[in-house]
Amino acid sequence: MKIGYIRVSKHEQNEALQRDALKEAGCEKYFSDVITGSKFERKGLEQLLAFARSGDTVIVWKLDRLGRSLKDLIETLNLLKDRGVDFISLTEKIDTTTPGGKLIFHLMGALAEFERDLIRERTNAGLAAARARGRVGGRPKKLSTNGKVALALRLVEDSHHSIDDICSTLGISRSTLYRYIREAKRASRPSDPPT
After folding, report:
1. DSSP readout, 35-60?
2. Catalytic-residue membership of 159
3. CB atoms < 10 A from the CB of 77, how many?
4. What's the CA gap between 188 and 153, in Å, rounded?
5. pLDDT tens profile 71-100
6. What's the pTM value of the predicted model, to 2 decimals?
7. Which listed residue (9, 69, 162, 173) is catalytic?
């Protein structure tokens, strides 16, 4: 069975162009979404994926109708392929029922993987450069000075203050306070002499 998928954004409410192209391609059933491409949930696409069976062919007017990004498109196409469902994009003339269409699909997958590797490489290089300049990633410490940590420890030792009061006064959580206490105890322990 040939199954058509239509997606129009909220700005271009008319799906007639896509529906006409899919009808001309021989689609017998249609699923559609009226939504922006960046929106995570697409009920029509979910229904299509639940409906499609091995031997069916999913047809779209353009590739960007099926996926929000290249990564998303590749994942959806791999899901279809794993179920034995073929795919045709009318505008780009990609047809996984033909050897040429399969080649294009595999090239797109390789390019998506290459793009992910480049992003990972750039991110790691940026982090290394930041570390070399003395910048450390992560959330800044809530108690940024030794004086504040010492104050927290003194307040804990004073039995007149409850843990909740101390945390409220310092603007920290209980787990953060306990972590500072653990670190202080660890630092105050004499290190074992070397043997």
Report:
1. S-TT-S--HHHHHHHHH--TT-EEEE
2. no
3. 22
4. 12
5. 778 888 888 888 889 999 988 888 888 888
6. 0.56
7. 9
